[in-house]
Design a protein that fits this description.
Length: 142
């Protein structure tokens, strides 16, 4: 049975609150200082609605994320976004991209790919192989 690739999208935020992980799977995320944001940034140096992450689809049915400066209505943030050291208004996220929102406020995006391995159900649910301690060699013998 062929395996199919699965992707997990992850955004790791570092700000005044510390380091936090946000798995991405929704079609839209608001990022900023406002408590109503999906991903809240804790810093006085970021805008209330600093950025928006949008899920876009590939032809093969998979998806990717684009980060856009400002809110979903197009209002830009005060300081903008530095993505991999370049000031950009929009960027299709790639694995290990670094997004800087302001002093001491940054994010790293990860796209983790893995192959789905089909689970094989044993014919006999009680077919278990046990390993006895004497079956394992002594590490000092090597």
């Amino acid at each position: 049975m062929p395996s199919e690739p699965h992707q997990n999208h992850l955004l790791i935020i570092e700000d005044d609150k510390g380091r936090r992980e946000f798995p991405l799977d929704a079609p839209l995320y608001s990022i900023g200082r406002d408590p109503k944001c999906d991903i809240r940034l804790v810093s006085q140096f970021v805008s209330r609605r600093h950025a928006t992450i949008v899920q876009l689809h590939n032809e093969d049915g998979s998806f990717y994320y684009r980060i856009v400066d400002g809110n979903a209505k197009g209002k830009l943030s005060a300081n903008g976004l530095l993505i991999n050291g370049r000031k950009l208004q929009a960027h299709d996220l790639k694995n290990e991209d670094e997004i800087v929102f302001g002093p001491k406020v940054r994010a790293i995006y990860y796209m983790l790919s893995r192959d789905a391995v089909p689970t094989i159900v044993p014919l006999d649910e009680f077919d278990i192989t046990l390993i006895s301690p004497n079956m394992v060699g002594d590490p000092e013998d090597d």
